[in-house]
Amino acid sequence: MSTVNQSIWFEKGMSFAEYRASMNVNQQELGRVYEQLAFTEEDLAFWKELSARNWKGVVLTADWCGDAALCVPVIQRIAEESNIELRFLIRDENLELMDQYLTNGTARAIPMFIFLDQDGNEACVWGPRSPEVQEMITTARATLPAADAPDFEEKQKQLYRTFKEKITTDPAVWRTVIESVKAKLTA
Known about the structure:
Blueprint: H1 7-12, H2 16-22, H3 27-36, H4 41-50, E1 56-61, H5 66-81, E2 85-90, H6 95-98, E3 112-116, E4 122-126, H7 131-141, H8 152-167, H9 171-186
Parallel strand pairs: 1-2
Antiparallel strand pairs: 1-3, 3-4
């Protein structure tokens, strides 16, 4: 956990409406998840309790990212119910911040959600995927031919198209993100 005050990054970020308006790759998928997501009564009670913390958050993301098309709208809706204002930064324009949150110490995997306490200090970080979504992509990648196979690139593109379609249309997948975020915010 970073002890650095991250408020400067929050101030630099876009609102959700600005981020959504700037999109040109996954805007439709993000919108579908955002509009169709439903919370349980238990979820709503949890988010209401969370709102007393007076948190805010910084999101490192990019329009081209399929995982962001799933996670950004789910966590934006959580934030709305929890009185958490999120601000959005494009990963490749903010590598100084991104490099503080590398996945496995090496990967600039997104989206990353950096939740800040009322003083602007990091409270917790979530991202880039729920464990279940990570397992889905790991299993799917295992079916690809060797990287030097003539059809590797074509098969990989098809895999990612199918994966993005699944994660942005299946409410059971969305539920894995909700539960994973709940667990992180409870810890």
